[in-house]
O-methyltransferase C-terminal domain-containing protein
Amino acid sequence: MSGYHIGRPNWLDPNFYPSEECIIKGVDNDHVLFLDVGGGMGDDVANMRLDLDIVIGDFFQEQQIKGARAYFLHSVLHDWPNKQCQMNFHQLKTAMKPGYSRLLIYENVLPEQNPSWKMTALVIIMMANAGGIERIENIWKELVEASGLEVNGIWTADGNYESVIEIVRNH
Ligand SMILES: C[S@@+](CC[C@H](N)C(=O)[O-])C[C@H]1O[C@@H](n2cnc3c(N)ncnc32)[C@H](O)[C@@H]1O
């Protein structure tokens, strides 16, 4: 994953996802601010001089952290078929506080036509190696809506497919 991150825009870069506006503003300090689900940092987190905790869990089981402001999934769902994505969404939806929590999916959102060769190659790699897939916008929306959640917006850095899909629970 370290190699995968090299040279790609970061979702916190200016002119990408408005995290200040969408996450920081209106935050309730009685709840967890941010949960990186499937973050893959392991014990490395303990060495960071930040106010971070490691939470060990299986994202197909009940989510222990309830009512966080943001649940974040980067390059996790493209490893999985639709059925497992929905199992994951179900657990996160149950933990989300309606009207407050955000689910941020940070993944490639492919165009319906003329994706780059790099993206079509990645589709094949994900299918062959993990039984997963890179998805187009409509498929992401269908997956989210079938889980009873709603897509609030999609942000993409210029010239890139990797996008932040912001999802809310209204009920
Ligand atoms: C492709 S890596 C992405 C890691 C990280 N989000 C990043 O962008 O570098 C997928 C991550 O999902 C985690 N993972 C896989 N199955 C999981 C499960 N059932 N519950 C929690 N995490 C899981 C793996 O440990 C790994 O860290």
